[in-house]
Write a structure and sequence with these properties.
The complex is a heterotrimer. Chain B has 1 helix and 18 strands. By secondary structure, chain B is mainly beta. In chain B, strands 3, 4, 6, 7, 9, 10, 12, 15, 16, 17 and 18 form an 11-stranded mixed β-sheet that branches. Chain B is globular, with a radius of gyration of 18 Å. In chain C, 36% of the residues lie in helices and 17% in strands. In chain C, strand 2, helix 2 and strand 3 form a beta-alpha-beta unit. Classes of the chains: A mainly alpha, B mainly beta, C alpha/beta. Chains in contact: A-B, A-C.
Chain lengths: 224, 256, 225
């Protein structure tokens, strides 16, 4: 297992489309719920423990080889907002492209064939991790970290927030991100034996509602 | 899991097509804190009210409510008052499990009053609904964090709705002291003290799903990945939440 | 036969000249340049000039989503299903250079949905002088500047001015009003670009976009040769 491969996959510059998504931060900024580093941290913490945990669990389960179609259905059920389902599939398709070019693999080709318009991004992430020679723990860390790094870098652009402050937010959340990744891997192992319902289902009401509010805007900077 | 020193209570309802255009209730049993009462129905629909014979659930209690709506039957269930989760003698969590099935051609309206999480309480609610391919469901759940001006207790609520064997909604909301961080932050409840959902399952939604739309900044109607729609809302208090959900339901029903 | 083509799903390599079914994909031409230099107007004029002879489509990359796409829709230069907007998260240059995945998806979807296509124009959001298109996204790129942006832009250079396959100096009709020296711009561009072509154009007078359209036709002839 290569540590450097994990750095490649987790790099914010990995060309998989994440830069165009704010993870709900754009709507939260406009609604006045994110106004600076402290509220960004609270936003990211809430995201990490809900959709972040779900994403990390899906990614870890996919990395363990759990059936991607079942995981994708589970992701749908855990994503009531259609705007977020569309965003997750778009990002999944973009990650698929980047991963297939980076780590060619029969499993990725097979997933692309089954989901030509994209599977949920965390499911693709887990299969991509396998293709990169990484494991469930790596996939979970990647997904958990992405759940907070996206909104943090978007908020730097949206609020002209001091980038050092935004990065410090991510550093402060690191221990919690580690715990979320651990819980996700435990859940993914339970899925292997106990079935899909073992996946966590944490939800954040204002993320779901806000995603629909955002999707209805005529003018926005970020795709979600 | 064995729960020490708590009350275990079970209420069961079976609704059956009586063959004369109405719905009979061959099973209607509740014990202890979960009493059931049949009230006057309308048309083909049977109505049941869940009557809280004592307050609760308290820490350590485990309540279960089951309702099975058989093919062609129509059942509407409400409750006489809000359910208040309270701290108990036992330090352990309380559980409240709701298990609902709606067969093909059956219809269930599950519209209980709010669940109020009082300070110091610790309750885990699970709601599991299985609807047949041609079944119909309207389910409301509302959580209120604390009585007026009170800090909330710990409340976790997981809802899982399956239609024709496929899970279309699986969500868990965790809030209150001890819940994972950020639950009351800008991604979670953002300081709102009432949160609710309305799940509507109809076979017609398979062909003609509802269009997603927002109802102000704090509520949205969305099509789920299946023949179902969800209304999600947060509000400052129970009254405003109910108004939002009622308006959304009326809008959905006007589609008929 | 494409024996070298081992992937039978959607194309894995972005610059691949073939579609999954083995047919040749559309030529992709990028249009970049600073804000207000006339990229969208040039795209609109190209669509009008070429739409009767070619099957074409447009992808826009806006800073705010859909503004350029909506301009093109209002102008009715193409049917709406042939115009797609990519959302760029406040960084249009990222979407055309560093992370081209959303744009590749957009061009592939256009070929699937309204194809077969001969040509796809990919318009960048207005950005600075350093923004260029990735070779993984486009086969050739046009950089559009205008005389009103300052006649020293060709002299300053930068990746767009220096390396674009075609440099367009737009709004030449404004030169007398803004005091721009077209001869100096041409000399500076020549110095920066050696043999690479430069077109001076005004869309407000004849021949309008003709020279750029001719250049596009020549690119397409080379692509399909």
């Amino acid at each position: 297992m290569s540590r450097a491969a994990l750095l490649v996959l987790a790099d914010g510059r990995f060309p998989a489309g994440g830069h165009a998504h704010s993870g709900g931060a754009e709507q939260a900024v406009k609604a006045g719920r994110i106004t600076g580093a402290a509220s960004l941290e609270d936003f990211c913490r809430g995201r990490l423990h809900t959709t972040g945990l779900v994403a990390a669990s899906l990614a870890a389960a996919a990395a363990l080889g759990v059936d991607a179609v079942a995981l994708d259905e589970a992701a749908d059920a855990r994503t009531p907002s259609p705007a977020l389902r569309v965003a997750a599939r778009k990002l999944g398709r973009q990650l698929m492209r980047a991963a297939r070019a980076t780590w060619p693999s029969a499993e990725l080709d097979d997933l692309a064939r089954r989901f030509p318009k994209g599977a949920h991004q965390p499911v693709v992430l887990g299969v991509a991790a396998r293709a990169a020679g990484l494991g469930a723990v790596d996939a979970a860390h990647c997904a958990a970290y992405e759940s907070v790094s996206g909104p943090a870098s978007a908020t730097v652009r949206l609020l002209s927030l001091d980038p050092f402050e935004a990065t410090a937010v991510l550093a402060r959340l690191a221990p919690e991100s580690d715990r979320v990744a651990d819980r996700a891997v435990e859940a993914a192992r339970r899925v292997v034996d106990g079935g899909i319902d073992e996946l966590p289902a944490g939800s954040a009401p204002l993320l779901e509602i806000g995603a629909e509010v955002h999707a209805a805007w005529a003018v926005r900077l970020f795709a979600s | 899991m064995t729960v020490a020193a708590g009350v275990r209570a079970l209420a069961r309802i079976v609704a059956r097509d009586d063959g004369r255009g109405g719905t009979s209730l061959p099973v209607l049993e509740g014990d202890g804190p979960l009493a059931l009462r049949r009230t006057r129905g309308s048309g083909a629909e049977a109505r049941v009210v869940l009557v809280g014979a004592m307050s609760g659930p308290l820490g350590g209690d485990h309540f279960t409510v089951e309702a099975d709506v058989e093919a062609g039957a129509r059942l509407r269930v409400g409750s006489a008052a809000a359910t208040i989760a309270l701290p108990g003698q036992s330090k352990s969590e309380a559980r409240y499990d709701v298990r609902l099935t709606v067969a093909d051609g059956g219809e269930l309206h599950w519209l209980p009053e709010q669940l109020i999480s009082a300070r110091g309480s610790d309750l885990y609610v699970t709601t599991r609904v299985d609807v047949g391919a041609a079944g119909r469901l309207v389910l409301r759940e509302e959580q209120v964090l604390g009585r007026v001006g009170e800090e909330p207790g710990r409340l976790s609520s997981r809802i899982r709705v399956g239609v024709a064997g496929r899970v279309v909604l699986d969500q868990e909301l965790a809030c209150g002291p001890g819940a994972p961080g950020g639950w009351d932050g800008p991604a979670g409840l953002g300081g709102h003290r009432a949160v609710g959902q309305l799940v509507v399952v109809r076979p017609e939604f398979a062909e003609a799903p509802v269009a997603a739309r927002v109802l102000g900044e704090n509520a949205a109607v969305v099509p789920l990945a299946g023949p179902a729609a969800l209304v999600s809302a947060v509000a400052a208090d129970a009254l405003r939440l109910r108004r939002q959900l009622d308006e959304a339901l009326a809008a959905l029903e006007s589609l008929d | 036969m494409h024996l070298d083509h081992s992937h039978d799903g959607p194309s894995a390599v972005s610059a691949d000249a073939h579609r999954p079914d083995g047919s040749r994909r559309a030529l992709r031409i990028g249009l970049g340049g600073p804000v207000g230099s006339g990229k969208t107007a040039t795209v609109a004029a190209l669509c009008r000039a070429l739409r009767d002879e070619l099957s074409l489509a447009v992808v826009t990359n806006d800073i705010y989503t859909r503004e350029d796409a909506e301009f093109l829709l209002r102008e009715a230069v193409l049917p709406p299903e042939r115009i797609t907007a990519v959302e760029t998260g406040a960084c249009p240059h990222t979407a055309i250079r560093d992370d081209i995945s959303a744009n590749l998806e957009a061009v592939e979807d256009l070929e699937d949905e309204v194809g077969p296509l001969d040509l796809i124009l990919v318009e960048s959001g207005g950005d600075n002088l350093t923004a260029t298109f990735s070779k993984g996204l486009v086969d050739a790129q046009i950089f559009v500047i205008d005389v009103a942006g300052g006649d020293d832009i060709p002299r300053k250079g930068g990746p767009g001015v220096t390396t674009a396959d075609l440099l367009v100096v737009n709004k030449t009709d404004l030169a007398p009003y803004v005091g721009s020296d077209l001869a100096r711009m041409a000399a500076d561009a020549k110095a920066q670009r050696a043999e690479l072509p430069v077109v001076f154009q005004s869309l407000r007078s004849e021949p309008g976009v003709r020279d750029v359209a001719d250049w596009v036709r020549a690119q397409l002839a080379a692509w399909t040769a």
